[in-house]
Amino acid sequence: MRIGRFLLAAVISASAATAMATPQADKGKMDQFIDNLMGKMTLQEKIGQLNLPVSGEIVTGQAKSSDVAGKIRKGQVGGLFNVKGVDNIREVQKIAVEQSRLKIPLLFGMDVIHGYETVFPIPLALSCSWDMEAIKESARIAAKESSADGICWTFSPMVDICRDPRWGRMSEGGGEDPYLGSEISVAMVKGYQGDDLTDKNTIMACVKHFALYGAPEAGRDYNTVDMSHLSMFNNYFPPYKAAIDAGVGSVMTSFNVVDGIPATGNKWLMTDVLRDRWGFDGFVVTDYTAISEMIAHGMGDLQQVSAMSLSAGTDMDMVADGFLTTLEKSLKEGKVTMAEIDKACRRILEAKYKLGLFDDPYKYCDASRVKRDIFTAENRAVARKIATETFVLLKNENNLLPLQRKGKIALVGPLANTKANMPGTWSVAAAFDKYNSLYDSMKQSLAGKAEVLYAKGSNLMYDAQREAEATMFGREMRDPRSAQELLDEALNIASQADVIVAAVGESSEMSGESSSRTNLEMPDAQRDLLIALKKTGKPIVLVYFAGRSTVMTWEQENFPAILNVWFGGSEAADAICDVVFGDVSPSGKLTTTFPKNVGQIPLYYNHLNTGRPLEAGKWFSKFRSNYLDIDNEPLYPFGYGLSYTTFRYGDLQLSNNSMNENGKITASVTVTNTGNYDADEVVQMYIRDMVGSVARPVKELKGFERIHLKKGESRTVSFDITAEQLKFYNSALNWVCEPGEFEVMVGGNSRDVQTKKFSLQ
């Protein structure tokens, strides 16, 4: 895992050759097949391949009479998305390959974001494991389950870098760091696509949202993005490019503008960067109605924006019907060319060929796989183990955690007894009735050993309308009782208990798409509940649910133990019990910086220095870069996370203090488990370029390794530093390393590090 993205270049290139790029002989065969097919296609049929309509309410028995079915028969549909169920998909595919003129199979896509029925932790949580093999395995199992139910294409991974937690879709990405984000991007693509896309257990990935979607102004979803090319290439582009290098089959456009032009119609982005600079040879699909949304951006009417998108390099139109209804007219008027239509059509057909759909259109329609491959005990066990790796222990005063399985434990809070909120946002195939609530799991975990007393304590928030908006898609949890009734019940059981576990925080739909927030503190009703519980004097453990970095200053000041569990998927409840009761030591490390208040946002570790930096350890100094009302430091830094054990880092050693462009320096540190629990630690390496042709960050993650140490065990962790890891994009957007002085920093988070200097000659 410590091997950096750049050192993996050869591996990635090799895997791309097997995952997506067809061997030369096969490519010749594919080209010939598609040439023959396209030679038979009418203009309307070619345009039809570029159309990805919404499936509507297609279920078995209704497909034949639906409006979509009529379009399929006419060859006006290239694929469908979010059709669920192998029987439904078989029925629809049958229309395409048995009733249309050319019998071209359909693509079936779905938002398989972090698992299928076996749901893994939300992507932000997965990133906090820093475990690339686990992340790859989660995508592999998601591919196996979804392909068993007829799906061949997923709209994942989302790799948008986010430095502003007001944006709700932070939950779907890998955090704020481009290096870690790139490693995750590769792991997800390889997990979904495997080594052979014709394998029935693999599916095609779609990296999104290209580009810069995670940087909207004010953290408001779909909002304007404005940034320099330097920041694009150094901070935001790397995870997209890593997916391209790993052989990802498709790319999804973003909703926002890039340089003032919506991404979907941005030729510089879709052709100059994506295809010409990075060599992407898959197809580009829009996000939902992104083409028609360009009208509101002020780019013209539907015909104009559709022509603009096709000419920019966008191949497939999701839902907007712009390509289907306007491209023929635009061709006649000379606003698009036949070559552009042919190019887009070919890319869609190539994807279907690479998936093996022309050989067997029903390869994903084996009904026997549903019971055999979906939501199996094996898959659930993996999801449970991975979930335990994602939880981040933020505070543990006097080693309150882990709790012993004895006495009476009061479980309180609106997130304590809800099955539907465990999986997290964008879990569209989740089967809520199959999952445990935290209350269910705690009763099972403590059976015969301790008593669990439960009370809800409060609603999510006082405002019923706001709560309804934060608990959509079957996640509702509103209790009709008054606030006082709920509180009285909680205080009653708390008075009987030895310890209180408070399950509080966000509901799953308080983060995700169109779930931006300006106030990131604990919702009002839950805060009042916690104030009342604190007055009991009982020890309190916060089991804190969230889909983003939140403001936890008050919680940090007032409660002895805080375990951030994000949203851990279908097995979240059992995994939480594993950690709370000490079967597993927490090992997650933050991949986003936690602010002390929302006014510090955007706050991220790899920032540039100013010309007037604040002296270390100070709060305010006039005419320096700081605030009057709060210091510059985060509440919890990037890479932070406690354990039930303690780790001692020995002295940082460098094999040399200088190197040339062809050399390397090895940085080594010995880590010892000095506590009483076997546990994992994530050792992190950061580098600072002290002098550059452009301003460089104060530190950048350049390596990490997750290690397991038994109590008393020591291990030496080594990182190779090469010139490749020192490269960056300069003002001319050339990928360069510059001779000079550097600092290497190693530690358990971005703040608590040892530092050594070296030079590049």
Structure notes:
The protein has a six-stranded mixed β-sheet, with helices on both faces. A five-stranded mixed β-sheet has the order 19-27-26-21-22, with no helix packed on it. Strands 17, 18, 20 and 23 form a four-stranded antiparallel β-sheet that branches. Strand 15, helix 22 and strand 16 form a beta-alpha-beta unit. The longest helix has 17 residues, at 24-40. Residues 1-21 and 59-63 have low confidence and may be disordered. The protein folds into four domains: 9-41 and 109-354, TIM Barrel (Alpha-Beta Barrel); 382-580, Rossmann fold; 597-633, no CATH class; 645-760, Immunoglobulin-like, CATH 2.60.40.10. The protein is α/β, with parallel strands linked by helices and 761 residues long. Helix 7 (132-148) packs parallel to helix 8 and helix 17 (377-390) packs across helix 23.
Short description:
The chain is 32% helix and 17% strand. The protein contains 23 helices and 27 strands.
Secondary structure layout:
Elements: H1 9-19, H2 24-40, H3 43-49, E1 51-52, H4 67-73, E2 79-81, H5 86-99, E3 107-110, H6 123-127, H7 132-148, E4 153-154, H8 178-193, E5 206-210, H9 229-236, H10 238-245, E6 250-253, E7 257-258, E8 261-262, H11 267-277, E9 283-285, H12 290-296, H13 302-312, E10 317-318, H14 322-332, H15 338-354, H16 368-373, H17 377-390, E11 392-396, E12 408-412, H18 438-446, E13 451-455, H19 464-469, H20 483-496, E14 499-505, H21 524-534, E15 540-545, H22 553-558, E16 561-564, H23 572-580, E17 647-649, E18 653-654, E19 658-659, E20 664-673, E21 679-689, E22 700-709, E23 714-722, E24 728-729, E25 735-736, E26 740-747, E27 753-760
Parallel strand pairs: 1-10, 2-3, 3-4, 5-6, 6-9, 12-13, 12-14, 14-15, 15-16, 19-27
Antiparallel strand pairs: 7-8, 11-16, 17-20, 18-20, 20-23, 21-22, 21-26, 24-25, 26-27
Helix pairs in contact: 2-15, 3-14, 7-8, 7-17, 8-10, 12-13, 13-14, 17-23, 18-23, 20-21
